[in-house]
Amino acid sequence: VWLLAWAILIKGGRIFEKIKLGFSCVFASMTPVQLGADAMRSLKMKDVFSTSYKETIAASMVVKGLKFLVIALATSASFFFAIMQPSLQIWVKAVLFSGFAVVVLAALLFLLPLKKETGFKIAGVFDRLSKHVHFFGKVSIYFRHYSLYLKTIPAKTLALIAFLAIVSFVFEFFAFAFCFFAANSAIHFYSLLILFTILAILERVPFLPKGIGIVEIFGVFFLSIESLMAEPLSIQQIVSVIILFDLMRLVIPTFLSIAVYFFAFKAKPSWPNAGI
Questions:
Q1: Which of 83, 101, 144, 191 is most buried by a 10 A CB count?
Q2: pTM for this structure?
Q3: pLDDT of residue 273
């Protein structure tokens, strides 16, 4: 669903072909903040459809921004449930709140440039930072282009992308919920929502591909809090849920993506060296 939203924003080419190309790059998301998938999609779109790097990356940023907004709204709801749950330790509430702040900032960074003047102000901030770190100069240039790109997206298209971001989030939530059904484990709805939103945030921590390690550790800890479960879970049930979740979010998408990459795109891309 996320790839459908991304493909709609990319001009030219058939939707199915763009989705197939995008899915063939999913395995590259096993990188910090999933940047590898964005980079690989940009390279392959340039190679196959001659789409500029700027357009491909901008499309990714729009969909990511709306997805972060959905996560932020869900996190605010789960944070309310957490505040109302006295048995939840204070540090868990602090993690949820800090994660909420990070997701909100990310959503704002991607979506505030919908207003061109605001986008140019953000670019100005990076321009000033470039005096100390040269790399920020390129970021400043990109944000100016990104602000102009957002002005070209019709309101109806943006509304459709927002709807697809919500659908994508809902599907991910149900996939997570079915992990508990499959493991014959009961959990309160508010606990499920809190855990899912925290894990959605932890998946995006820097320096860890898909949050591997920290997601599993926190998941085991959270599910061990008996007061948050509909019934106490055995260690076997907890491990089963975590393994099923990892199969769903890591193993299956990665291997399917690799299969699509090798069978649908047999020709090796030319990996252009041109600058953005």
A1: 191
A2: 0.81
A3: 47
